[in-house]
Design brief:
Bound molecules: zinc ion
Structural class: mainly alpha
Order of helices and strands: HHHHH
Largest sheet: none
CATH superfamily of one domain: Ribosomal protein S18
Number of strands: 0
Strand content: under 5%
Shape: elongated
CATH class of one domain: Few Secondary Structures
Helix content: 40-55%
Number of helices: 5
Distance between the termini: 48 Å
Length: 85
């Protein structure tokens, strides 16, 4: 008997099923995106130093833009690295 091919699980399906995403900055107005806040920005970059996409972090477009901008500023003054080996 031939083994039947399973329908492949798409990456998107897995991401969607995990949990309901929300923008952490919209949810908590106290949280301010500041380029000097290395601890906050550290949570929004990947291990290698890349900026985590909004699809992953759940940030809304407006806050994702602010985050990206802040990360770039922080990189420039070397609070966070451009890349990690
Ligand atoms: Zn937001």
């Amino acid at each position: 008997m031939k083994p039947r091919m399973k329908t492949p699980i798409k990456k998107k399906d897995v991401l969607m099923r995990q949990r309901k995403r929300f923008c952490r900055f919209c949810a908590d107005k106290q949280k301010v995106i500041d380029y000097k806040d290395a601890k906050l920005l550290e949570a929004l970059i990947k291990e290698r130093g890349k900026i985590v996409s909004s699809r992953f972090s759940g940030n809304c477009a407006r806050h994702q833009r602010r985050v990206a901008e802040a990360i770039k500023q922080a990189r420039f003054i070397s609070l966070i690295p451009y890349t990690r080996v």
